[in-house]
Amino acid sequence: MDEPDTIDQGFASGGADALRHAYDAHGSLVYSLCRRAVGGDLAADITQEVFIAAWRRRTSFDPDRGSLAAWLTGITRHKIIDVLRREARHRNDRIDSSSVLLDVSDPVDWVGALGDRMLLADALAALPERSRTVMHLAFGDGLTQQQIAESTGLPLGTVKSDMRRSLARLRRHLDHPDGESP
Amino acid sequence: MNDFDDRVLELMRGLTADDIDRDVPPPSVWAGIAAAVAEDADGAGGDAPQPAPLDRPRPIGVSGPVALGRTAQRRRQVLTWTLAAAAASVVVVGAALVVDGRRAGAPDVIAAVEVTSDGLGDAPPGIVAQAVIEDDDGVRRVALDASAIEVADGEFLELWLINDDITDMVSLGVVRRGETYEIPGDVELGDFPIIDVSIEPDDGIPTHSGRSVLRGRLEA
Fold first, then answer.
1. Domain ranges in chain B?
2. Cα separation values, B207 from A95, A108, A173, B189, B203, Å
3. I want to staple B69 with a disulfide (CB 3.0 to 4.6 A). Which of A124, A154, A172, B51 is the partner?
């Protein structure tokens, strides 16, 4: 099983520079998610709010249960949806497709799925090169493990263990139960 | 394939170049975070409410708690000025008493305002008191009996005049039994019609705590 990384553990224990390290590692993820959802002006404000709120409630982050990235993304989603609701209320309106930059039918679901995809992109980028290739062939191109082994020249056992290990890491990276409802 | 594999499959199929692109936040973002967190660390135990950049102002209106944060600095200046003015007026009043020891007529009542704890949330509802504004030979004072409000050790009551949109306020000082509170000479009551009593922690921070326990409005 994949171990929590040192940034995540540092954040949970609230050590010196832990917030700065967390921001360096995930600030652009949070900011990019906000930008895509609500545009640049609000993105900076929401990013600030997310890290301040996360630091204040850092004791509720448990690095054994999931990644800091997923936990922060959960907080970001809630903040984005708060902003969309607030804006909708100002217009005496419900949240609808005009609340976000893209024309989507359900902005709440859309923000959730966008956060998941961006988290996944980060998690894939953090995998070793070979594992990343295997994952892209398996999940992106839909090849079987046997086909991957043939096309890459890797032993079938290596393909299988790469996929198993990678999926465990992705699972840890994508989920943090408390992040879903901070 | 289990559920998680299915989820990864679905997400990976949906991945676009945009999902991988990352924007770097402007430097002001970290600066704001660091400032807010440093303020937390300075505060009492770190759990004092601190304004975040996007914090909605607390509900504005006579029955709501006072919005704090953005105007705190300004209020600090107002308070500093108020204290200076109060100190100056003590000197002036003292001098007047020496010059004219006969000055003893009863002050004129300018207005009486009912202040109540109803709707404020930081005191039990139903507490009502009278704030009486008097003109004592050109010096306006507020007389108020706030003894019905219970104050815990380490806290005190403070009297404020607040403008209608809760963006500016003037402290009239610490509420003590049997005292009256002078309104600085250049404060127009019409500009600060809300009379407010707050519970203040004894933390040396001169701004309004946001915990109002009595409030009323002076009608024109």
1. 3-42, 72-217
2. 37, 39, 43, 20, 10
3. B51
